[in-house]
Each structure stands twice: as structure tokens, then as C-alpha cells.
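--- STAGE predict ---
source: upstream dedup step, 1 unique chain passed
mode: sequence only
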Amino acid sequence: MSWVYVEREEFVRRCEKIKVSEQVREAIRLWAPTVSNKYETSRSKLVFRSSKNRYEAWAAGLPNPESNKGKSGGFRVIYFLDLTECTINLDFIEERKELGFRNEGRQKKDRYNDYIRVLKDYLKQRDS
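--- STAGE serialize ---
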């Protein structure tokens, strides 16, 4: 299945804030339509599925082609799929190193988890 690519306002703002290059944005544009919602991988995790199976929210680790550090030097992208409209809606991007590892960066992790909770609530509301 090929998805219609949508960059949501928050995603665009985050890209500008963390200075995501046009090369990286183009790589994301090419990657997004190929996303599969059939299974989770080590780089892509399902974080929410609406009760009516219309929306799915996913977190994906994407490498930064400019850093040559693999996923540790890449980005965390949050997107949701509208399974009725066949759209992939990119909603959030952050450099992986800014999310903290294990016990470090607790406040950053909490902000990230709060963002996920808000997105879940938004999708639940749209699904009703």
C-alpha cells in the first residue's frame, strides 16, 4: 500500500527548530509512502490503535544520512496512519540523542511520553 504523505504543522515546526536539512526531509518523504502497518520492527513500533481501527500511531527510528552513525545518530519520528483515507501524517521529529538513554534525560523522556499521550487522546477523539 502506498500512503499519501502529510506533514502536520507540529512536524514542520519541529523540523525548523532542530534544523533538519532538506536532504533529510527528502529522505523522509521518500521513506514515508513505503511504510507498512502489518508488523513491528526494531525500528518501528506501534504505540496506539484506535478502537474502531481507523487510526494507528507509530514511532520510528530513522537514520540521519548526514551523520553516518546509524540509528543512534538519527531521528525519532512519530506519525499516525489514517487507514480510511490512506494517509501517513508525520506529527513529530526529534534527534534521538535529545530523548535521553535509559536513566539519563528523564525530563526529556517525560516530555516525549506526554506528547504520545496527547496524540493518543487526539486520535481517540477523532475516532469517536
